[in-house]
Amino acid sequence: MEFIDSFMATGIGSFPHKEEEEAITLVLRDFPHIPFWPQLPKRSFLEGMVAQYSEGFPSLMLDKKGQKLWVDTSSGFEEEAERFYQSIERGDLESFRISEDYARGLRLLKDLSREEVRKRIKYIKGQVTGPITFGLALTDQEKRPIFYNPTLREILISHLSFKARWLEKKFHELFPGIPTIIFFDEPGLSAFGSAFSGLNQEDVILSLNECFSAVEGLKGVHCCGNTDWSLLLSTKLDILSFDAYGYLENLSLYPRELKIFLERGGILAWGLIPTSEDIQKEDAQSLVKRFEKGVEMLSKERFDPALLKRAILTPSCGTASLPIPLAEKVCRITAEVSKRLRE
Q1: Is residue 2 part of a domain?
Q2: pTM: predicted TM-score of the whole model, two decimal places
Q3: Which of 172, 235, 268, 314 is the most buried (most CB within 10 A)?
């Protein structure tokens, strides 16, 4: 899918608000061209990064009061896994729906259907927690991350792939003809290559590519920390979403891989607007200058500057950890930087 609308703004996903109406208002105001449904982890434990996509996972145990979840394979797991794979074989996407209790922000889709809103939309974005982050955070009854169990890893890849397919199908049904973007959020990849990580490069690439293959539209990965960028750039992703405020220089250390990615049509989602206290010292003008310096830095690595203009603007990460006024400032400045660059 060709991407021709450079410098449009979108968000990563999470907000600090507890009421979906407040977050939806921000999305409609500041991200009209690539709206996304807001995640509200402070509203409910069920909207946390792992819990939000855990619904329907075989043998999942959920303790809402203790705000814990895990997979218990000690009893009845084989029967639940069999039912799971039967749903997969039938292509039963409704078995993988994200219900309102887990994603109140999906109510945004009703607001997007209004004609005055809809006519401004270029793409619709959804997000799913990626298989590495999900598989490292969710454990079995022995507190072992399920990603390291081959059987459970296979299930989690299928599970998240079908969550993404369900989202994409919902977008297509409500907004026929409008292209989709699905991000797989992978903060867990920041641990890749560290002494504390047992991640295998082949398993990481295979897991991501299998999730990507489930998506018809543009698919991306968001990683808000530093990682081995060559690993991500070697996958079949269309969009690399990264913290350009904090880690642009790190990404520039992979010129060959980045050049190949851009020349095959890859898109950079520049997380240029900081989602930390640093936002207090920045404004649209300073961040536009930062973007221009970033393009200049990468261009020295013999990149065609025209390729770098095939870009999306985003906050560096979700805004859930910020006070509400700062989160709203992040959204406002993201919109303003996008506007200035498009002009």
Answers
A1: no
A2: 0.95
A3: 314
